[in-house]
Structures are given as C-alpha cells and as structure tokens.
Amino acid sequence: MDMRVNIAGVEWKNPVTVASGTFGSGAEYADFVDLNQLGAVTTKGVANVPWKGNSTPRVAEVYGGMMNAIGLQNPGIDLFCERDIPFLKQFDTKIIVNVCGHAPEEYLEVVERLADEPIDMMEINISCPNVNAGFLAFGQDAHHVEKLTGQIKKIAKQPIIMKLTPNVTDITEIAKAAEAGGADAVSLINTLTGMKIDVNRRTFAVANKTGGVSGPAVHPIAVRMVYQAAQAVQIPIIGMGGICTAEDALEFILAGASAVSVGTANFHNPRATLDVIEGIEAYMKKYGFESVKDMVGIVR
Ligand SMILES: Cc1cc2nc3c(=O)[nH]c(=O)nc-3n(C[C@H](O)[C@H](O)[C@H](O)COP(=O)(O)O)c2cc1C
Q1: Is 81 labeled as catalytic in the residue annotation?
Q2: Which of 71, 104, 183, 220 would bridge 53 by S-S if both were Cys, CB 3.0 to 4.6 A apart?
Q3: Distance CA 168, CA 113 (A)
Q4: pLDDT for the residue numbered 165
Q5: Which atom of ligand 1 is closest in space to residue 44's alpha carbon?
Q6: How far does residue 240's CA lie from ligand 1's centre (Å)?
C-alpha cells in the first residue's frame, strides 16, 4: 500500500499533518507522538517580530469543539529559526512553517527570512486582519489574496500553501484568486468566527468578544468547502476542520483533498494523528486501494 502523497513537488510519507497552532512547533507533543510517523509537521504561525497575543480568557468550550482567540501569540522569526527549526530537523518528516502578518511587508519579511532555512513548505495564514484595509482579513478579499500570493511567490524559495478562511461568501472565488496569484497549494479551513456569552459573568466568554470555532462542529462545513474548492482549482488541497478519526479525514480526501491536517483533536487525544494514519491504512486494505492518490476526489 502506498501512503505517499506529492504536494506541489514535496513528497510526504503519508497524507497527514497537524493543523497550525494546535501542535506548537512539535516539541510539546514529541513525548506522545513519534514525529517521524507524520507526513509533515505544520508549525504555529510565526511573524516578523514577537506577538504577545490577546488578553485572557482566550479559549472557551463550545458544543462539538472550542473557540479560541489566542491572537497568534508567537516568539517572532529570530527565535523560531534559532530554536524550532533545528528541533524539527531531527525528525524524518516534512516541515511546513505557518506565517502570519498584519500587512504585506510583514509577511514578506518572514518569507524572505525563511527562504534559506531548511524547511520544505510555507503555509500563509491569510485570516489575519489587514491593517491597510480596515482590518478586514486578507483572505476575505480576492484581490488582496491574489496580490499577496504573487508578492510572496516572487521571493519564496519553497512551495507556498495559501491557507483560506471560511468566513467568506464564496470560497471558490478566494481559492481561484490564490491559484491565479501563483499558489502551489491551498489549505482550508481556518476557524469560523463565533461568539459565546458567559451568562453567569454576563460578558463574553473570550476577552476578544469573538473567537474562531474549531473541532467536530465545523467538519461538515469544511468538507463542503474543500469539495467546492476542488471543483474550482487544479492545485492540490490540504483539507482540515474537525478531523478526529480516519473517517473524518477520508471524507476530505474523497471530496478532493490530497492531504489532511488534524487540529483541535490533538488537545483531547494527542495520538489523534497516528489513529488517523492507521485508520486510513485499514480503510485502504478493506476496500482494496493501492495508493492514497487513487482516493483523492473520487466522490463528485
Ligand atoms: C488554539 C488554536 C490555535 C490556532 N492557531 C493557528 C495559527 O497560528 N495559524 C493558522 O493558520 N491557524 C491556526 N489555527 C486554525 C487551525 O490550524 C485549523 O485551521 C482549525 O482549527 C480547523 O481545524 P480543527 O477543527 O481540526 O482544529 C488555530 C486553531 C486553534 C484551535
């Protein structure tokens, strides 16, 4: 059985990675998960300088998942390159660095800095508010997505994955804009904006008022969006949103994703990625699939 997948010229040993921000930079999980077993490790978002994130409380439980408003707290690219990349290089897995910024210049600074680092791919989080466009997220405006993708592609040396936000009217328009800008792949979905009120404190459950909803509750929405994106673009898709089991992951693959990311599930089951890999193998054996590639997008 062939578990390998090829994402924009990078061969992963299997189609499973972790969703950015739910696995640190791998070190927190290395006692529970053999990182050598993962197709790739996707790091938490990193910016040009350290970000301290939002005020607390920053997470809340919701039905079928969680809501977070961490605010992309991160140590900045200098410490990241010094500490996190050498850590991940010890393992036989692909390294995908997730990049965030408030303005194109901030993204470009990080991409330029990473160009000569020994990483395999970059994933660009365009759910960040754009300070130059009234704080609308980059990923909510097709024009900005195409432009930013093009600017990044000019300086990046590794393949670029544009990570799409689901908080849009038409995901196909945004996926096409990323492709038109030269993206090598797209990943989706990021979290869905939600709100929870703490009735006993009579205030918002997270200090930011709104937060990003993730976990099983968002899975059917994510599968629908991956399917739509797969009909709209030719570039590979990495599917995510609420994956807890191999069946959840297989839905994305059958809908058109070439690979998948496990996110919130890592918090309650640190072995979730390994369960998903084993479950995909068992499914392939049961139904006689020789290669993961043969399952991609077969439900139309
Ligand atoms: C606590 C937390 C932190 C996150 N941080 C990031 C991040 O830094 N960059 C990013 O692109 N997505 C981030 N995400 C979004 C996830 O990568 C993923 O797109 C989303 O949670 C949906 O997948 P899931 O339902 O499996 O968690 C974060 C999600 C959570 C729950």
Answers
A1: no
A2: 71
A3: 30
A4: 97
A5: 8
A6: 9
> Is the CB of 21 within 6 Å of ligand 1?
yes
User: Is the CB–ligand 1 distance for residue 44 below 6 Å?
Assistant: yes
**Predicted local distance difference test score (pLDDT) of residue 123:** 98
Q: Which residues contact 224 (CB under 8 A, 6 or more apart)?
A: none
Q: Indicate whether residue 39 lines ligand 1 (CB < 6 A).
A: no
Give me the pLDDT at residue 297, please.
Answer: 98
Instruction: Tell me the backbone φ, ψ of residue 6, rounded to 5 degrees.
Output: -120, 115
The amino acid sitting at 5 is V
| 224 close to 241: Cβ distance less than 8 angstroms | no
pLDDT of residue 88: 98
- Residue closest by Cα to atom 21 of ligand 1: 214
pLDDT for the residue 128: 84
Q: Which two tokens stand for residue 44?
A: 């938490």
Please tell me the distance from the alpha carbon of residue 280 to that of residue 278, in angstroms, as a whole number. Answer: 6
Q: Is the dihedral of CA 259, 163, 142, 109 positive or negative?
A: negative
What is the residue type of 150? Answer: G
What's the pLDDT score for residue 253?
98
Mean pLDDT by 10 residues, the chain (300 residues): 97 98 94 97 97 96 97 95 97 98 96 97 92 84 97 98 97 98 98 97 97 97 98 98 98 98 97 98 98 98
Cβ atoms of 230 and 96 closer than 8 Å:
no
Cβ(222) to ligand 1 under 6 A? Answer: no
From 258, 232, 292, 297, select the one nearest 8 (Cα to Cα).
258
DSSP code string of 16-54: EEE-TTSSTTSGGGTTTS-GGGSSEEEPPPB-SS-B--P
